[in-house]
Design brief:
Layout: H1 3-8, H2 11-30, H3 59-70, H4 92-104, E1 109-113, H5 116-126, E2 132-136, H6 141-148, E3 154-158, H7 163-172, E4 179-184, H8 196-205, E5 209-213, H9 228-231, E6 240-246, E7 256-260, H10 262-271, H11 273-276, H12 283-297, H13 299-326, E8 339-343, H14 347-360, E9 369-370, E10 381-385, H15 392-407
Parallel strand pairs: 2-3, 2-4, 4-5, 5-6
Antiparallel strand pairs: 1-7, 6-7, 8-10, 9-10
Organism: Cylindrotheca closterium
Cofactor: pyridoxal 5'-phosphate
Family: Belongs to the class-II pyridoxal-phosphate-dependent aminotransferase family. BioF subfamily.
Length: about 425
């Protein structure tokens, strides 16, 4: 019997037919099948990546990293850490960097993780055990999965950014039980910010702790770009249990840091599996992280943040003007962050919109659909990211392209309706210190 015949009758082939292929077919029928897409091409205009400040593609930043890397001792492993932090993967450089990150975030201690996803898995699978967790309904998948890995954890969701609904759940909580509130400061799908001051005040009033993910705030908000907690002076709030700061967005590199007390850090080193059993971050990645913080905190970072704020306001103003001229409703979610979400209900509608934009520009502008089940049905959207390196001309081109594409789609699909736009004309004040 030949190899192909053997494979057709194999246990793995039977498993694929019974489980894998039906699941993929369901996704195809729903219009939600995910596929890898190569998005980087020469001359393309970036309105999709999380590289808000442009550090990941900055030649100047690359040169800073390489110069710093070459200064490191030759006896230190150059290409990898060789093991987990608890075995051979620790180093003086790692500990020194953690000390610096703790200082930058006004925290007693800091613990590096391989990614923001790993950091959230580590934090939420361990700190929430045997406790009540109140989570914003739009929290990231990594936070939700972390809680699923926790033991004997009672989870309740409150309405997005709704402090009153959170208070209702806090009042219902059993007396004497530890309660942990889980939020993001900037939400990845809507780009809106959490009402952190009110949220922390309420947490303290009800003797609750707070775990915060600052993934999309680092580098963008706060003094020296250190995040929303820094902006509002909440880094040492008595209810703050820990915060996660991810480097894969504005920092333009990879990894994350968990900021907490020294006791929480030691607890995670003993109980958090993603930390204990992962190979530690290598030297080159550590150098890249240190250089990113250097740039985010200096005059270059301040200039790049000003450019981002200005570009976001320009985008929203131009889209308001185009919306008014068209006489049709454009569903742009209110946001002062670089994340701008255009609601295009329906998976196929969302995909069609992005494909039309790419076709009109011969692939020079690619927008990506965020489809259900990533977001709820009816809330599918196109996620537009505004960067420090986007020019006024590029933003003007994008707005005209988006409006003309929407106008060219079938009105019966419910994408556009007559009447006043629900786009917010108000430009929120950028309170971050520059």
């Amino acid at each position: 019997m030949d190899a192909s015949a053997l494979h057709r009758n194999s246990p793995s082939s039977t498993f694929e037919e019974d489980h894998i292929l039906p699941a993929l077919e369901r996704r195809r029928k729903e219009g939600s099948l995910r596929k890898l897409q190569f998005s980087h091409q020469v001359g393309a205009i970036d309105f999709s990546s999380n590289d808000y400040l442009g550090l990941a593609q900055s030649r100047q930043q690359f040169q800073l990293v390489e110069k710093t890397f070459q200064k490191q001792p030759q006896h230190v492993p150059r290409l990898g850490s060789t093991g987990s932090r608890l075995l051979t993967g620790d180093s003086d450089y790692t500990r020194s960097l953690e000390d610096k990150l703790a200082k930058y975030h006004n925290s007693p201690a800091a613990l590096l993780a391989n990614s923001g996803y790993d950091a959230n898995l580590a934090v939420l699978s361990t700190l929430t055990m045997n406790n009540l967790v109140l989570m914003d309904e739009l929290c990231h998948n990594s936070q939700q999965m972390g809680i699923r890995l926790s033991r004997d954890c009672d989870v309740k969701q409150f309405q997005h950014n709704n402090v009153e609904d959170l208070e209702r759940l806090l009042k219902e909580a059993s007396p004497g039980r530890h309660c942990i509130i889980v939020v993001e400061t900037v939400y990845s799908m809507d780009g809106d910010r959490a009402p952190v001051v009110e949220l922390f005040d309420m947490a303290l009033r009800y003797n609750a702790c707070v775990i915060v993910d600052e993934a999309h705030a680092l580098g963008v908000f706060g003094e020296n770009g250190m995040g929303v907690l820094s902006e509002f002076g909440l880094e040492n709030h008595p209810s703050l249990l820990c915060s996660v700061h991810t480097f894969g967005k504005a920092a333009g590199c990879h990894g994350a840091v968990i900021c907490s007390s020294q006791n929480v850090k030691e607890y995670l080193l003993n109980y958090a599996r993603p930390i204990i059993y992962s190979t530690a971050v290598g030297l080159h990645a550590l150098v890249t992280i240190e250089c990113s913080y250097e740039t985010m905190r200096n005059h270059i970072g301040k200039r790049l943040r000003r450019q981002v704020y200005r570009a976001v306001q320009l985008f929203r103003r131009l889209l308001l003007e185009q919306s008014a001229k068209s006489g049709r409703q454009i569903q742009l979610i209110s946001s002062i962050s670089p994340i701008q979400a255009l609601v295009v209900p329906g998976n196929q509608n969302c995909l069609d919109f992005c494909q039309r934009v790419a076709y009109k520009t011969e692939g020079n502008i690619k927008l990506f659909p965020i489809r259900s089940p990533t977001v709820p049905k009816g809330q599918e959207r196109v996620r537009v990211i505004i960067h420090a390196h986007n020019t006024d001309q590029e933003i003007q081109q994008l707005v005209e392209l988006m409006v003309s594409t929407l106008m060219g789609m079938t009105p019966a699909d419910g994408l556009l309706t007559s009447g006043k736009s629900n786009f917010s004309a108000r430009h929120d004040v950028m309170r971050s210190k520059l």
